[in-house]
Design goal:
Number of strands: 8
Structural class: alpha/beta
CATH class of the domain at 2-11 and 68-119 and 132-232: Alpha Beta
Order of helices and strands: EHHHHHHEHEEEHEHEHEH
Strand content: 5-15%
């Protein structure tokens, strides 16, 4: 099972939560970065503004830890872990500090086998630094810093080389950048777009030009996903 993080595991966007902490207005020069240099560069400047506003690493981390999980998602993660036959990974355009802090605070960090996201760290001055996960030019569905489909496919291939072959791959997400990994799924796999979010709306369009081979199931809560998984692939007795 592969999960997005923002608006999927958590019920908000971690970057936006951090940005909304700012006391001072965002300069036009920074606001334009999103469309010119990309989201990662934009967020680096947001983190610099947060530091200039006097916010400490602990204050930023505390705000992220307080983000609630999406409905039923904590139970879903724990149920998947208890199955004993499921690997759980996260593929997210957030950053490693936000995700690791949130998972640890929610006591589910031991459940996630691996996280693929933009690496980040607080330096000695208290500034949160973020780098691109990779710089890609092969996928026009994805941002230049993160092709989730490539990451998912590479992980599956790597596990196969280590003798682990999955009977079924499930992908859970909400946004446009979750479309690419859904298109990498096969007919025996499961795609879970969140109801009323961009991914579900895109897939449901009559003129949608791509074909998702996996079985698509819209979800509103983790319980919806859990029910489908057990129906599709009953737990081992």
């Amino acid at each position: 099972m592969a999960f997005d993080f923002d608006h999927t595991i958590i019920n908000d966007n971690s970057d936006i939560v951090a940005r909304n902490m700012l006391n001072s207005p965002i300069p036009d020069s920074v606001a334009k970065l999103y469309r010119t240099d990309g989201w990662t560069s934009y967020m680096q400047n947001i983190f610099e503004l947060l530091k200039s506003d006097g916010f400490s690493p602990l204050q930023v981390q505390s705000a992220i830890k307080k983000i609630p999980h999406a409905p039923g998602m904590d139970t879903l993660l724990k149920n998947l872990h208890q199955r004993g036959d499921t690997e759980i990974i996260i593929i997210s355009d957030s950053n490693s500090v936000f995700i690791s802090d949130w998972l640890e605070n929610a006591s589910v960090d031991h459940i996630v086998n691996k996280t693929f996201t933009n690496p980040a760290f607080f330096d000695d001055s208290g500034l949160l630094n973020i780098n691109m996960f990779h710089e890609q030019d092969w996928c026009n569905l994805s941002t230049k810093n993160l092709c989730k489909g490539h990451i998912l496919q590479s992980y599956i291939e790597e596990r196969a080389q280590n003798g682990v072959n999955f009977d079924c791959v499930g992908y859970v997400g909400d946004g446009h950048n979750d479309l690419c990994p859904c298109l990498k799924l096969s007919a025996t796999d499961l795609a879970f777009p969140r109801k009323d979010y961009t991914l579900a709306k895109t897939i449901s369009k009559d003129d949608f030009e791509h074909k998702i081979e996996a079985k698509v199931h819209i979800w509103e809560s983790g319980q919806d996903i859990w029910d489908i998984i057990n129906k599709h692939l009953p737990p081992n007795e």
